[in-house]
Write a structure and sequence with these properties.
Length: about 180
């Protein structure tokens, strides 16, 4: 994996005819992000939402990230989005939390287990550090052992466990909070 010097190009890795590229997302990537997001909603408890969201919803999310200068990173191969990562404000507009961010990393179902999550997480953490953030937070379904292990590999520690705070697929869900100190 090499990192490219261009400001919007994070890296290139060739595994097939089209190289996999890590870069900042553009508005043209939002439909691919939407497809991943809705697949995660439909098949997992990684996102505590029952119904798919619209393209307009993800466009508004993307615009809000851009307005706050928060990154949305994508792994692409040709025009296809293979995965994405982002972070945003933690706990809304309260200024006491301005140095904390909550992140998400989601990978297309046929690309999971290939290391893309880690390739996206490294520059995401670096961006948060560059922005002067102090803590990066993840909210993870307690049954998602793979995601918990993934975060531990990046220095995240469990900081809380909330029992039965979510409900999806006809059952109560526990939420694990993980955090990593950035500064």
């Amino acid at each position: 994996m090499t990192f490219c010097p261009a400001p919007t190009m994070l890296g290139v890795r060739a595994f097939s005819e089209a190289p996999m590229i890590l870069r900042d997302a553009t508005a043209e990537d939002v439909p691919g992000i939407l497809a991943i997001y809705n697949e995660v909603i439909a098949t997992s408890t990684a996102i505590y939402i029952d119904d798919p969201v619209s393209l307009a919803d993800r466009q508004a999310w993307f615009a809000a990230r851009q307005a706050e200068a928060y990154p949305v990173l994508v792994a692409t191969e040709g025009d296809a989005v293979l995965g994405y990562a982002s972070f945003g404000t933690f706990r809304g507009p309260w200024p006491g939390f301005r140095y904390s961010v909550e992140h998400s990393v989601h990978i297309r179902n046929d690309q999971r287990g290939k290391g893309l999550g880690g390739l996206l997480m490294e520059p995401l953490i670096a961006r948060a550090q560059t922005m002067g953030k102090h803590i990066m937070i993840g909210a993870i379904d307690a049954d998602n052992a793979a995601s918990i292990r993934f975060h531990e590999r990046f220095g995240f520690e469990i900081s809380g466990h909330m029992k039965e705070v979510g409900f999806k697929f006809g059952r109560w869900l526990d939420l694990v909070w993980m955090q990593r100190k950035l500064s």
